[in-house]
Amino acid sequence: MMNIHISKILIHPIKSCRGTSVAEARYTPEGLENDRKWSVLLVERNKILTARDVPKMILIMPRIDVDPTSPHGGRLVISFPEESGCETFSVPLHPNPELLNTWEILDDIKFFSNSLDGYICQALPAPSTSQTASSILSKYFKCPVHLMYKGPRVRVCEPTFDFPSLGASLHYQDGYPLLVLSEESVDAAETEVRKYVGTQGVEERWKDDKLVIERFRPNIVLKGGGPFVEDLWEEILLQSVSQADRDDVGMGIQLVSKCTRCLLPNVHPETGVRDKAVPFKVLMKFRANVDPRQGMKACMGVNGVPTGSGVVRVGDQVYVRKLLSE
What we know:
Blueprint: E1 5-11, E2 20-22, E3 24-28, E4 31-32, E5 38-42, E6 47-48, E7 61-66, E8 74-79, E9 89-92, H1 97-100, E10 105-111, E11 114-120, H2 133-141, E12 145-150, E13 155-156, E14 169-170, E15 178-182, H3 183-195, E16 220-223, E17 233-239, E18 251-260, H4 280-286, E19 299-306, E20 310-313, E21 317-323
Parallel strand pairs: 15-16
Antiparallel strand pairs: 1-2, 1-16, 3-4, 3-20, 5-6, 5-12, 7-8, 8-9, 10-11, 11-12, 13-14, 15-19, 17-18, 17-21, 18-19
């Protein structure tokens, strides 16, 4: 499997907002650095918002601006579509403990069936604006919201059938630190979409429209193994070519479960418009029941947990340490 490699690394600094493609990323057992450390809280219901609730969230563009000389490691620059009338602002990338001690912390934030903690961002945005992060975001959402930074309480992943003692932790990701998906799997899904044009609510434009991988919001994108090859693995090792003769270096990932899909991938990452059929209805046609443990839920991609810390890079090769036991 020497031909399988990382073709893209995607980080999503704010939960459900636009992702950014990077050439390399640091990682820990909690996932990629800067991935989903922030979220948006709906004040009225004390819950974390996602693009399932508000599709136009996906048009908010966080940009990571690293500055090693900064006490916070740099800034997170947040911009909006021009037509929104919302101005760009920035906040500390990694707020240090001294700053966090000045922010209010909430201990019972609703996120699916979980109760999470988080700090309300109270840092002053860039000097160019007199507004707060919350007021700018509230203007965009047209209701009171807060920008939240994950609090210190450890959030433990749910165990899976193959990993009943899974003790991994994460931030504001849906359920696990990483999502791994191959380009060929998305290409196969696009081919299936073409078959249903004119039926099942699949519009004529899907004769030509591309099903972009960003719809599925993966972290590690692979190429070279064929459609759904990731379904077959339980543990992989990602290494540069220069590390290939060593088994003790590189990014180890335990693939703990297949990722069940909801309607979020129906939201186009460039327009924020939710399609009424694609890809969810098509996935239900050919990707339901691929994992009997998930029942009739459609699966696309696999959930992963890094087994250590280090740096992963585009171009790193994929080595299969363990195949999934059937």
